[in-house]
Recover the amino acids of this structure.
């Protein structure tokens, strides 16, 4: 239930062991990586100078950051290529992380062999597909309109005094030609459609070849060249095209079979290599943070102190390793929250605001308890609570933390539902163990304020402890959220609250005297701190500015105490809203007149309240946490502990 | 969106922008200066172009002035485009396409003269940011074929590709026609999506422009390039205002004299006015006609597209005239000779 103590783990090991060591460390998911070079620069790699360590010491002079092997990028690319051309489904979760690491040259050789074998059929398929495309695009429909022609292209080609061209014209250009047809010595015939547009056939006297070319060019005519092998009638050409297409398709299939055969023959080998490649590329990405010299590698990372023994035993399995643990370093450790199963889902709420700093109290348990309490009071209903518990259990598979949160809130609802005697909004089914909110409006509002005051006081305590941990005297002792602030708040409570309730908790003059002292402490907090710390001068540069600001901040202090306290009245108010909403649905149900109608309205009412009011109460609860409470005690400027792993 | 909402803000803004143009007095003062340096200094210190010309140190560098004014034009363009969305925005982008084709033409001419592209043509970088072709890529082209190949993947490739083996003398004519055809068809396409009122205004402005270009092309095609009439008619632009396809066909199948005769019976008669050399003055006469047209449109414009379109063109004409004045001074032209090369007529300049 706290922030885990961290320690910096520095490792020096033999370069050839690096892949194995990294893999073992990643598998634990308990190490947060830090740049090893910065650690070395800050002299955190300290070890005894003894005979056996001399080598390591000398090697420190040749240290550099790890650089990716560009040649190997090529290999990884080939692996990707293989994956796509052999159509292999690669699932990173099926990678056997325990497999031994192969040598890089070995992988390269293996992959090269298969890659070469795949190249030939692959290139063939590519060329064949291109040809099919060409046939389909250009010729497939180019003769559609002239299918019943009996003249062959061959005969046309052989004509002595006439020539022809086929090509594509846009509609606009076709119109231009049409309008000027009387001046053009050519016959124009629409023969079909290709992908790029309408195809036309132009027949003209060979003598006018040059003129015709110029005219066609001015119309953006794009010529289609018909290969020599096609020389029959349009019908024959079409059939030949179909035949050619079929031939090409069967050739493609043949080549695909070759690929399939290669795939089946090498199945296990390919899988093994791809696994290795995946592992290596993962490890390479991580290696950017390690340092390397001629013989050794240098690795740094945060681990929890409780995991130190585990790390030692893992690393002990590797030969010739030097492992050092160091508790305090100049860099701020990441925060690893450790909470038991019950409070863990509330970590999500805390992290949503900010991760606690390493030296800050983990507010999770407090947040958990207070949030459940607010929720229960606002949303007390045995039946709906049960629905939430079930929904939470269902969601747990997909959204672990949110699902957990929902079921815990559901439990709170159920408890308060029993206390209120409410099941699915029906107040008459079971007796109230405590009270019915709607029948005791003043009581429930009072209770919520009392609860709020209690929780505020706890948050003051948290704030003071956090200030103590930060060694922050100014805030902790004299701040408006520190000791002085609490005293002021307590005095105000005793005097104002007491007079409201009609009991004297503290004699008025005494109360006022203590409150004034606390106020003075807040106003003079900077000089007082400097007095204790023996710092001079007592104030900063702008003395009058400091006091102006300080005195005005008192106004804010009073306001925030007042509004913070009253703010909790919403907890009671929402308990009333909850019942009130159901009352409305119940009235509508009665108006329906029939039992069936009544039941339907209650069901709709329940869904409405669970969805809409549930959302509102959820947000109001967060507001109280983040705004009224966190602002008093929590900074949340820490860095989350992010262990490296092979998974992402 | 209705035209009231679309244009009330931008038209007000453009009227303010227009008020920053040079006045007639400015033009007179500019022409009266003795040296180019004095002229540029005057532009820098006494006109609204001072801001954009601020960084010019060398007061002899006309090309730099041109580039900066160009930058100014693009900036104004960007300002205007911001006020529009959807189809109107697209129309303005299409207008921008003309600069692209104009710059390509510059390149082609340089290529025809056998110049080194990297040295001879400077395209404003601000402009080229909007281009579909890569300025960096094409400026290294060594031959026409190479040049066209480097345009692959743009709209220009398809229309220029058939001419890659053409001899340079005729080539320019062919290519310019094709590029203009590309631009106008792109523009008409964009214009068809405007609201009905705007479409009519735009078609009217565009229609006369198309007429003028068609006349010019047919004239040049007949007189200098000996094109086949069939070819010539195919290159003409559709959607002219006063010259239908039939009229143009009549011109294509006739000779130059026939063309002069026909045109002198229309509102474009100034084009074939024999008082001055027709060949030399045709270009500037076209510009003058368009200038008057846009000036008129700007004055009459209500809550419609005419003001913004007219502004862009008027600004172009202004820049063109400023540069003409600077160039004229550089080549030692007299005050009265200079005026011959300006698009505008300047009131009070004859005194």
């Amino acid at each position: 239930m706290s922030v885990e103590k961290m320690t910096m783990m520095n490792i020096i090991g033999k370069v050839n062991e690096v892949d194995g060591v990294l893999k073992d460390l990643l598998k634990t998911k308990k190490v947060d990586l830090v740049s090893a070079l910065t650690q070395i620069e800050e002299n955190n790699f300290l070890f005894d100078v003894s005979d056996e360590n001399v080598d390591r010491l000398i090697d420190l002079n040749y240290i550099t950051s790890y650089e990716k092997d560009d040649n190997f990028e090529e290999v990884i690319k080939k692996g990707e290529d293989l994956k796509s051309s052999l159509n292999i489904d690669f699932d990173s979760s099926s990678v056997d992380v325990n497999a031994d690491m192969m040598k890089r040259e070995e992988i390269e050789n293996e992959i090269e062999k298969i890659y070469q074998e795949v190249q030939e059929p692959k290139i063939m398929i590519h060329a064949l597909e291109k040809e099919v495309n060409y046939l389909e695009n250009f010729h497939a429909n180019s003769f559609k309109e002239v299918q019943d022609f009996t003249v062959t292209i061959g005969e046309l080609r052989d004509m002595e005094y006439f020539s022809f061209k086929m090509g594509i014209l846009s509609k606009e250009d076709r119109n231009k030609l049409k309008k000027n047809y009387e001046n053009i010595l050519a016959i124009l015939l629409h023969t079909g459609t290709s992908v790029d547009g309408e195809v036309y056939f132009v027949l003209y006297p060979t003598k006018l070849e040059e003129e015709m070319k110029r005219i066609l060019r001015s119309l953006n005519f794009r010529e289609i060249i018909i290969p020599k092998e096609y020389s029959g009638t349009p019908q024959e050409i079409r059939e030949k095209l179909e035949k050619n297409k079929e031939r090409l398709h069967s050739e493609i299939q043949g080549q695909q079979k070759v690929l399939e055969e290669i795939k089946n023959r090498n199945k296990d080998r390919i899988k093994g290599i791809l696994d290795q490649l995946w592992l290596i590329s993962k490890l390479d990405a991580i290696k950017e943070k390690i340092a390397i010299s001629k013989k050794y590698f240098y690795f740094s990372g945060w681990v929890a102190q409780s995991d130190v023994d585990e790390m030692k035993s893992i690393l002990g399995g590797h030969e010739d390793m030097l492992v050092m643990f160091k508790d305090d370093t100049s860099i701020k450790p990441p925060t690893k929250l450790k909470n038991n199963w019950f409070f863990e889902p509330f970590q999500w709420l805390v992290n949503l605001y900010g991760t606690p700093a390493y030296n800050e109290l983990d507010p999770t348990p407090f947040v958990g308890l207070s949030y459940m309490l607010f929720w229960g009071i606002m949303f007390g209903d045995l039946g709906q609570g049960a629905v939430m518990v079930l929904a939470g259990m269902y969601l747990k598979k997909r959204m672990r933390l949110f699902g957990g949160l929902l079921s815990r809130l559901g439990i709170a609802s159920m408890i308060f539902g029993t206390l209120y005697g409410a099941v699915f909004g029906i107040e008459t089914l079971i007796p109230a163990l405590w009270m019915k909110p709607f029948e005791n409006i003043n009581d429930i509002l009072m209770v919520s304020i009392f609860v709020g005051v209690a929780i505020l006081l706890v948050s003051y305590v948290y704030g003071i402890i956090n200030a103590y941990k930060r060694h922050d005297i100014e805030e902790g002792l004299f701040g408006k959220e520190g000791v002085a602030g609490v005293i002021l708040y307590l005095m105000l409570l005793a005097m104002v609250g007491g007079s409201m309730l009609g009991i004297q908790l503290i004699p008025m003059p005494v109360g006022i005297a203590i409150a004034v002292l606390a106020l003075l402490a807040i106003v003079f907090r900077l000089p007082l701190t400097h007095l204790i710390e023996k710092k001079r001068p007592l104030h900063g540069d702008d003395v009058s500015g400091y006091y102006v600001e300080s005195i005005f901040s008192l106004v804010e202090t009073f306001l925030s105490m007042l509004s913070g306290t009253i703010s909790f009245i919403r907890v009671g108010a929402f308990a009333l809203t909850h019942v009130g909403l159901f009352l409305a649905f119940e009235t509508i149900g009665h108006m329906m007149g029939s039992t069936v109608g009544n039941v339907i309205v209650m069901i709709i009412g329940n869904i409405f309240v669970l969805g809409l009011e549930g959302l509102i109460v959820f947000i109001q609860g967060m507001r109280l946490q983040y705004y009224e409470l966190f602002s008093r005690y929590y900074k949340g400027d820490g860095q989350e502990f992010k262990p490296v792993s092979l998974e992402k | 969106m209705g035209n009231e909402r679309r244009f009330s803000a931008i038209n007000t803004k453009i009227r303010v922008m227009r008020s920053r143009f040079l006045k007639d007095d400015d033009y007179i003062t500019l022409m009266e200066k003795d040296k180019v340096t004095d002229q540029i200094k005057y532009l820098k210190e006494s006109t609204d172009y001072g801001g954009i010309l601020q960084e010019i140190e060398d007061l002899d560098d006309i090309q730099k002035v041109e580039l900066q004014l160009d930058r100014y034009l693009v900036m104004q363009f960007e300002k205007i485009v911001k006020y529009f969305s959807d189809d109107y925005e697209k129309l303005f982008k299409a207008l921008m396409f003309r600069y692209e084709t104009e710059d390509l033409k510059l390149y082609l001419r340089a290529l025809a003269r056998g110049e080194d592209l990297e040295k001879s043509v400077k395209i404003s970088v601000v402009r080229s940011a909007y281009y579909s072709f890569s300025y960096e890529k094409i400026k290294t082209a060594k031959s026409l074929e190479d040049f066209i190949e480097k345009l692959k993947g743009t709209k220009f490739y398809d229309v220029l590709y058939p001419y890659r083996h053409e001899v340079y003398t005729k080539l320019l004519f062919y290519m310019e026609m094709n590029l203009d055809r590309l631009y106008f068809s792109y523009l008409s396409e964009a214009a068809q999506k405007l609201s009905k009122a705007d479409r009519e205004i735009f078609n009217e402005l565009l229609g006369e422009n198309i007429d003028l270009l068609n006349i010019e092309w047919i004239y040049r095609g007949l007189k200098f390039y000996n094109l086949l009439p069939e070819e010539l008619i195919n290159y003409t632009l559709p959607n002219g205002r006063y010259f239908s396809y039939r009229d143009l066909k009549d011109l294509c199948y006739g000779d130059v004299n026939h063309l002069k005769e026909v045109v002198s019976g229309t509102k474009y008669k100034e084009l074939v006015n024999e008082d001055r050399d027709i060949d030399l003055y045709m270009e500037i006469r076209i510009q003058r006609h368009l200038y008057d047209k846009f000036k008129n449109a700007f004055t009459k414009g209500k809550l419609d597209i005419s003001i913004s379109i007219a502004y862009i063109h008027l600004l172009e004409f202004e820049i063109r005239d400023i540069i003409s004045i600077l160039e004229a001074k550089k080549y030692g032209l007299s005050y009265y000779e200079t005026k011959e090369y300006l698009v505008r007529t300047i009131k009070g300049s004859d005194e």
